[in-house]
Design brief:
alpha+beta; two-stranded antiparallel sheet; elongated; Cyclophilin-like_dom_sf; Cyclophilin_A-like
Length: 279
């Protein structure tokens, strides 16, 4: 075999399974398709290539049959359908289900283009007080159900976040001492000095606000989705969205409409079996 043929063969081998359970390198460039089968119907989902760690982990869990026999154990209409806990498998009726015994996490993969519209697949996680980096649980997931919002509601949500944030930034730069100085310059009619200091303060405030990751500005894509199909806007930038439902929205609604107990667990168990249709 010539050297060129050897190189070509090695290149090809890099794009096939290295061993059972390992995904081929080329798969990182494509979205994956999975099927969640339940006793109320099936949902087909797409996993994003732009969230490779979550995508790979989810596919490995499917291959290991982790989800088979588990429940959608936390269902809140207008919010989310949550599943993936190993504790939910064969759980007795009325039992409260938690995260299971695993404390493994995945680094968050926030992407501005993916948000909590209806049907969004996202990773559950522990609260901020014990999870400051917003790392995802290794197996817990939820599908966003949500509701439709008006533009006025979205604007109100933006203001609720941005107005207090802006006030904090203003307070940081426009200190009592700076206010006193500006008042003094204004009384003395020292226009140039007043403008120089005022413009610098204004520039610093604007820069800090625009560069802040805490501000809330809905994109046009978010506005369109949240005012048409709906979703859960306040979850954005807090939980990693790594896929979405592409068919079976009626099934999602059926599950969301089930009666639940005090723990938000459906009175009718919704068991799942998950398989991979396309890597």
């Amino acid at each position: 075999m010539t050297q060129i043929k050897k190189i070509l063969l090695l290149t090809v081998l890099l794009f096939i399974f290295c061993s059972k359970g390992e995904l081929i390198a080329q798969d990182n460039r494509t979205n994956s398709i999975v099927l969640i089968e339940t006793n109320l119907g099936n949902m087909k989902l797409m996993l994003y290539k732009e969230t490779p760690k979550h995508r790979k982990n989810f596919l490995q869990l499917i291959e290991n049959k982790h989800f088979d026999g588990t429940l959608f154990y936390r269902v809140i209409k207008g919010f989310v359908l949550q599943g993936g806990s190993q504790d939910s498998r064969n759980a007795a009726p009325g039992r409260q289900i938690g995260y299971g015994s695993s404390n493994r996490t995945i680094e968050s993969e926030f992407s501005p283009q993916y948000f909590h519209k209806k049907g969004a697949l996202a990773a559950a996680r522990q609260p901020d007080k014990v999870n400051v980096f917003k790392e995802s649980d290794i197996s817990q997931f939820y599908i966003t159900h949500g509701r439709v919002y008006t533009m006025e509601e979205l604007t109100t949500m933006e203001k609720a976040v941005n107005v207090p944030l802006k006030k904090q930034i203003v307070k940081r730069y426009l200190t009592p001492k700076k206010r006193q100085l500006l008042d003094s310059l204004k009384k003395l009619k020292k226009v140039e000095e007043f403008r120089e200091i005022a413009d610098k303060i204004k520039s610093n405030i604007s820069f800090d606000f625009e560069s802040s990751t805490d501000k809330l500005i809905f994109t046009e894509a978010q506005k369109k989705a949240y005012t048409t199909v709906g979703g859960v806007p306040h979850l954005d930038k807090n939980y990693t969205v790594f896929g979405e439902v592409i068919s079976g929205f009626d099934v999602m609604d059926k599950i969301a409409n089930l009666k639940t107990d005090q723990y938000d667990r459906p009175n009718l168990d919704v068991k799942m079996k998950v398989r991979i249709l396309q890597y």
